[in-house]
Fold this protein.
Amino acid sequence: MTANLVERYVAAWNETDADARAKAVAELWSENATYTDPLAEVTGHAGIAAVIEGAQGMFPGFVFTAGETYDAHHNTARFTWHLGPAGEEPVVIGFDVVELAEDGRIARVLGFLDKVPAA
């Protein structure tokens, strides 16, 4: 497992074209993959793509970038990510734990939000 996974993951979260996003999700996640964070719990490509679209709708014009932390062993990785206006201080900071399936695609994501905007 390499840091390239994080680059591809962040790229999928930044993809605004629905068809290209669906393709990126299918390439990165296994068919029955799960995604769970404080705001969502979904299974499968359509559910994951919908969560990504929802995040983009909540933060229009913001971009996801890889954070400073990346660590991996066996079929598991953990990494931080940022969300905010390009080149500016992130508004949201998250920490995701990813488990890979046998085929190298993501089988499960457990997401945590370390910094969120004040309500």
